[in-house]
Amino acid sequence: MKSRKLKMGMVGGGLTGFIGAIHLRAALMENKIELVCGCFSSKPEVSKESGRFYNLPDNRIYSSYQEMFAREIALPEEERMDFVVIVTPNNHHFEPAMLALDNGMHVVVDKPMTFSLEEAKILQQKVTETGLILAVTHVYAGYPAVKEMKTRITAGELGKLRRIYVEYPQGWLAERIEIESGNNAGWRTDPKLSGKAGCMGDIGTHAWHLCEYISGLKVKEMCAELNTFVPGRPIDDDGTAMMRMEQGVKALLAASQIAIGNANNISIRVYGEKGSLKWVQEDPNKLFFNTSHTPEQIIYIGGDYPYLSQRAQWNIRTPGGHPEGFIEAFANIYRNFALTVAAHKAGEHPTAEMLDFPDVNDGVRGMQFIETIVKAGWNDDTKWVSWVE
Amino acid sequence: MKSRKLKMGMVGGGLTGFIGAIHLRAALMENKIELVCGCFSSKPEVSKESGRFYNLPDNRIYSSYQEMFAREIALPEEERMDFVVIVTPNNHHFEPAMLALDNGMHVVVDKPMTFSLEEAKILQQKVTETGLILAVTHVYAGYPAVKEMKTRITAGELGKLRRIYVEYPQGWLAERIEIESGNNAGWRTDPKLSGKAGCMGDIGTHAWHLCEYISGLKVKEMCAELNTFVPGRPIDDDGTAMMRMEQGVKALLAASQIAIGNANNISIRVYGEKGSLKWVQEDPNKLFFNTSHTPEQIIYIGGDYPYLSQRAQWNIRTPGGHPEGFIEAFANIYRNFALTVAAHKAGEHPTAEMLDFPDVNDGVRGMQFIETIVKAGWNDDTKWVSWVE
Amino acid sequence: MKSRKLKMGMVGGGLTGFIGAIHLRAALMENKIELVCGCFSSKPEVSKESGRFYNLPDNRIYSSYQEMFAREIALPEEERMDFVVIVTPNNHHFEPAMLALDNGMHVVVDKPMTFSLEEAKILQQKVTETGLILAVTHVYAGYPAVKEMKTRITAGELGKLRRIYVEYPQGWLAERIEIESGNNAGWRTDPKLSGKAGCMGDIGTHAWHLCEYISGLKVKEMCAELNTFVPGRPIDDDGTAMMRMEQGVKALLAASQIAIGNANNISIRVYGEKGSLKWVQEDPNKLFFNTSHTPEQIIYIGGDYPYLSQRAQWNIRTPGGHPEGFIEAFANIYRNFALTVAAHKAGEHPTAEMLDFPDVNDGVRGMQFIETIVKAGWNDDTKWVSWVE
Amino acid sequence: MKSRKLKMGMVGGGLTGFIGAIHLRAALMENKIELVCGCFSSKPEVSKESGRFYNLPDNRIYSSYQEMFAREIALPEEERMDFVVIVTPNNHHFEPAMLALDNGMHVVVDKPMTFSLEEAKILQQKVTETGLILAVTHVYAGYPAVKEMKTRITAGELGKLRRIYVEYPQGWLAERIEIESGNNAGWRTDPKLSGKAGCMGDIGTHAWHLCEYISGLKVKEMCAELNTFVPGRPIDDDGTAMMRMEQGVKALLAASQIAIGNANNISIRVYGEKGSLKWVQEDPNKLFFNTSHTPEQIIYIGGDYPYLSQRAQWNIRTPGGHPEGFIEAFANIYRNFALTVAAHKAGEHPTAEMLDFPDVNDGVRGMQFIETIVKAGWNDDTKWVSWVE
């Protein structure tokens, strides 16, 4: 009997990076997805070694993604991969994603979705045409506390929004480590591989996405400054942006990769006319909620807390006090994606909870964010730059 | 081709509790284990529904564990389960564990290992006789920060130890919720199902285990007081113990289930002649390290931190700042257990890192802890009670 | 015109210690007290130097407290000291306090109030006979957050109390520094100067007082263990006690001076049938308040917070977010004492807020605490020891 | 015999505000200053009541500051005030300060120093001409942790600086409370009384000063946006600025008075090539210190910590773990000012530690900050505005 599990193929994600194994664990955790094949590296021997480590049979470990799609599509439908996850450098997102869609396979792709905005728009059109599902792993949107925050803001608990602070400081690129091997800095600081932005492409996009996802509002204009602090680096490693959003909301975005002492310290604070909410990723299972003239509330995340919204509960696995983390946030994106794909296969409508993952439209806006902040951030003359469509 | 993955069967863990799904995710995450069968509840319809939810075919969903072992052992070796995980109330740990071992299957069992110390000793003897592997899920020993703490203490970074504070406050039993349905309180507060101790069996054992695991020292004597604060409850829901350990170390253990505002707030602080270390489970990816006359150090947990020990690194999945949590701690126990079983099957010696999971001897000492603290804690006459062997 | 300020004389508190200057700042801050004279050390030259540093004229700097009282009483009433503050080692509290009272002067004395319980009772009788005012500086009772906590507990916000954890870990005596000069360890670890208890006299008394003050309940029985971890030290430097209080409340007290990494980390957590409150001195301007099934509340301390009680507000100086600390807690004791003395001088009744400072009865109970814990803590045979009256 | 204490007169600071009493406590705490006279309000009856509460004789309580200076200068030198502290709304700083200097009296004035930059420059010239001492109470520069941070940065512990984040969020003006009485919002939101800026004048100046004080670098250019979120308010209540400082350092300043849930949450983070330091005012007695590849250090503030600099130690009153706060930070400014004045009177040179308080030059730069941020912040056309001299 055929397993009901979705069958996943992987492009990239070999043992030499860390993010592939994270995606894999997140995908597997819910017992709704199984890894059936992959091309884990552009180097065949690394791909082979990685696939074997992941317990794949040799005949499902491929040397190129082109080979993978060609060979998989030839398998009986109950054996072949249902979707691909793409965890390569940015310049290798577009082609395998297009090829997957052309072969009728769904796609999960790491962020930023593509190398350029042009690619993003083509991909968006392809998704529309094929009706297939594409998820972009803006992982922070997968945290249950973020879901709770979004739900409360949507429900008006803060009143009309006014001010947002979102930031993502890191310190790991404070030195020019990209000229050494053995780390993940190389392609991220090379514009030919990562695209127009460095810091802003890698982590600024996360901060921007969190800001729009939680508030439900879009950025309209931006005044920014990008910086390269490390000599010799050909791309931004730091930057700030004042952002004007819909409904008069003002947001301040700061991202840096030279902020020594910060690992992945993304946080967001949202202030409205009636109250505020704050979330910090490195301590992810709580929200700080304030209204005027009352004690501060710490809203803890846990399956047994009756005060949490349905949207948050749907994305929680443990009772209070048993921390969930980064892999579970990824797993929420994979689980919701898998349920949506399953509904699609069954000809059913996915629920709003199932559809709650970043999709191709988020991916396009992410590329527009990069275009806009690069345009605004390296320009001393024009103060306010409109969102680049 | 046969998958290299270990095949897991499950006893208990149906959808009505939460802990079964936690075990399952932890087991699956590393792609080294697959769920192949289970008897998820003593109610056949719950078992059936749970198994289907877990994507099992109907012919591998059983109505009793006796049926499960009988049917599985009849399957070809490459199909049948390799080990069982037992996540039932305490009074149903012993029989399925014994039956599994008798059928040549390895065992993972939740803590406390058995209903009584007598059962524990029989199980210990059976494990010895069969040479099979048994793991007890004292989950807190699975956290990488705990591994780091143990490693540093073993290496003498604190000097000779003096004083330990370990505590596990919870608040969920502050009211007599066990008389209502729909929660996990029922069997935990019923001595016929949970054994001699309530609070001390459920969470006191965790605190005790953390204390002995991290320090590498054993408790010798105990002076204790157990309490039942909630009227009508026939078992302890709170207690404290002063414990005299090997080498003159004094430990203070406090556990409570009526401490409103605490979810699973287990923490441990260890003081030696030269320094101290502190860990708090609800914020699990850091250690506080102090020596005299120097600033406090926060030792963060992350795969990219060069100052962490090999033992900790072995149990880390993410780079710094991307929190791991409760499920990953469980996953470390499952992963190390699985690697040990695989080595066993291959006739190889597992490494020290693989063997780093709580085993049947921890299980026996856990039952002795319960015996000792019950003897000491309800007794106003004798101050110091020796460890019950 | 005579100033309306109270005139203070000082015994002890010279420049070689730190606590004298703390008392002085606390006394002066509210402009209700002025320093007019003192005998700051048993060494005349240190007394002289200290007095001059404190801007006293030479004729009000004395070489002995006997001389001070004799000379001051001979001054016109509008010039002479109104009260004395005694900040000497414990063995020199009793005599100057008695002499002050005999001369009609009020007294502020550091804790523990005396060297022995016998002295304490004599002093209590003398206070009663003279009708004069005596304050004991159990400083932690002076924090506004502690006042808020007491008020809420008294008002029943936690329901009937069940369990208290109070602890005071320090690390500064982890080595035998008392054999060197230049620190405050000498007399504190010498039973001839400090009394029967070391750690428990110096800081255990603070923890005990906080426990009784906040709960409004008295300790009835104690089961304890005292320890001396540092070789050669003739007195306890660590200990724990399980305490049975009125109304069935169980308290756990832990104090240590060998807990490296802790400075003055006194904290208290109180659990009742309906909720809990927690306070930590090193972060003193907040309370953590929990009831079942609701988010945690952080109750911040600030003059502009409408949800705070009158008792707390009376003891607050700054708006929220501008931290008050240790000196202000002392200042609350001095301010309330001064207002009580002023009312006494004016023949008026002080208000309940004015009388809210530790008095001679707290001092006597503090000495009984020391007697009880020493009796219980060095005794392996008797489990429960009744409070020593 | 004349007391060696400095004699203080007060302008403003009556009982209806809170800041006067804060200044008074800070001034008195060290026993180096005494309050001898004052004009506490423009309303004579409030001035009278306040002066009596502060224990002044009626003949030293004045109805106007003009009367105060005229009457005091007529007193014998050993009786009359030595300096004035001015704690009035901003539009009443300049005249009493000028009059004090004209009468040979030193000055302490709250920030911002004056109503306009023009006034500030005149005052600066007057101070230069008279050789008298003027302090501006940028209180956050008085915290010992800030002193430690400045010292370490000056010593190069962070390497060359790159990036600074400084912010001061408050929430108390989220509603238009200035139209009600009984709060301090009225004059702060009225441009006729507070000057060109609201939020930026009241708290933005603090953030800016902290940034320049700690880094030792000056702002050169600014790109800013000011906002008024509360309808009807005629002045900014929120704003952000990207600031280019000397040596290529980029600073981001955010201040807000509509950020509900924040009281006085000023914080600063400074990143250099080698490390970083972070300080948060609401938990003021610690610094977070990071270098690459090492555990985080928490540098606690306490008189007994050998790793602290001389500059910090000079400004510490308590041992570690006994928190100092806002009033002590003020007291450091008063103490250093008083010692400088005393040296001036004695014809001696004050030490560098004594001179470590914000002076008239800080005051002028503070007014330039306001000019610059108002010019930049309400202008959508020009991106970068040069510092207004």
Describe this structure in words.
The structure is a homotetramer of 389-residue chains. Chain A has 389 residues and is of the alpha/beta class. Chain A has 2 domains: 6-140 and 333-365, 3-Layer(aba) Sandwich (Rossmann fold), CATH 3.40.50; 150-319, Dihydrodipicolinate Reductase, domain 2 (2-Layer Sandwich). Chain A is 33% helix and 22% strand. Chain A contains 12 helices and 14 strands. Chain A has helices at residues 19-28, 44-53, 65-73, 94-102, 117-130, 144-154, 185-188, 191-194, 199-215, 310-313, 326-345, 360-377; strands at 6-12, 33-39, 83-87, 106-109, 134-136, 161-169, 219-227, 238-245, 250-256, 267-272, 275-280, 286-291, 296-300, 385-386. In chain A, the strands form 2 sheets. Chain A has a 9-stranded mixed β-sheet with strand order 13-12-11-10-6-9-8-7-14, covered by helices on one side. In chain A, strand 11 and strand 12 form a beta hairpin. The first copy, chain A, is globular, with a radius of gyration of 21 Å. The mean pLDDT of chain A is 95. Chains A and B meet through helix 1 and helix 11 of A and helix 1 and helix 11 of B.
Quick structural summary:
The first copy, chain A, is an alpha/beta fold and 389 residues long. Chain A contains twelve helices and 14 strands. Chain A has two domains: 6-140 and 333-365, NAD(P)-binding Rossmann-like Domain (Rossmann fold, 3-Layer(aba) Sandwich); 150-319, Dihydrodipicolinate Reductase, domain 2 (2-Layer Sandwich).
